[in-house]
Amino acid sequence: MKQQEKVFIVTGAGGGMGNEVVSTLLSEGAIVVGIDISLEGMTHITHENFQKEEVNLLDSNRIKEVFKQVFETYGKINGLVNLAGIAQPSTPIQDVSLDFWNKIIGINATSIFLTCKEAVSYMKNQEGGAIVNVGSVSVARPRPGLQAYIATKGAVEAFSKALAIEVAQDKIRVNVLHPGPAETQMLVQFPSEKDQENGLTLDDFKMSVPLGELIKPTDIAEAINYLLSDGAKMVTGATLHVDGGRSL
Ligand SMILES: NC(=O)c1ccc[n+]([C@@H]2O[C@H](COP(=O)([O-])OP(=O)(O)OC[C@H]3O[C@@H](n4cnc5c(N)ncnc54)[C@H](O)[C@@H]3O)[C@@H](O)[C@H]2O)c1
């Protein structure tokens, strides 16, 4: 087992990818703390090494409190996976409100700053750690109407690289994973409201992937498990595309 006795915090743990990442890390022997705005998507995870916490990632005090509690309970935080996020239904820029822009920047980008800040402060006083921040293939292959979402994911990538060089001396690794179109409830939220009403099918997304299949949450979980493992001990500041070739 790759992750025996390691302690990981996973945000967005109640989501499609989050569920699979949690279950993979538990099966590798880790202790996992799942964070989500709602406990609903985590109620079925009953493993003895799993702890769930209801956290709105816009609440910096609550984030601080949970990281402190995890460190006090387990004595270490070996890794952080940032999967929480929201989508943007494709919208022309002139119709995107400042409120939506601020909301998506807060949830998709500022939350990464806040959780990494806490994680690094604990990891610095132990034998390092590993962070995986999840972006999106759309940073490399933008689509129209997703300007706010893509800006947040570009920020995730740039921030992660900047942090990787800053904390390398502390043996903390920071990597980015860019998923392609994946089989979760988020995927159908990207088309415009009109296209959603017209019932845009998953086949339309599948056709955009050169390998001819949508990405499965297990594909993401396998890659994250690797990036968190000692097998990736010399990998930092990297961007791993798990997108079936969509970025090519
Ligand atoms: N599904 C795709 O096609 C796709 C493609 C590229 C990138 N991504 C990215 O992958 C990540 C995981 O996406 P997913 O497909 O599993 O989506 P998902 O919607 O299934 O999961 C996202 C989770 O984030 C949680 N969340 C949202 N706002 C929150 C907040 N304020 N505080 C705490 N938790 C909050 C949600 O409750 C949800 O459980 C996201 O960052 C997403 O942007 C997804």
UniProtKB/TrEMBL annotation:
Q: Name one GO molecular function term.
A: 3-oxoacyl-[acyl-carrier-protein] reductase (NADPH) activity
Q: Name the enzyme's class.
A: oxidoreductase
Highest taxon of the lineage: Bacteria
Keywords, ordered alphabetically: Oxidoreductase
Biological process according to GO: bile acid metabolic process
Q: Which Pfam families match?
A: adh_short_C2
> Which Gene3D superfamilies does the annotation name?
NAD(P)-binding Rossmann-like Domain
Per the UniProt record, which EC number(s) apply here?
A: 1.1.1.100
List, alphabetically, the InterPro entries matched. NAD(P)-bd_dom_sf (IPR036291), SDR_fam (IPR002347)
Query: What family is it from?
Result: Belongs to the short-chain dehydrogenases/reductases (SDR) family.
Q: What is this protein called?
A: 3-oxoacyl-[acyl-carrier protein] reductase
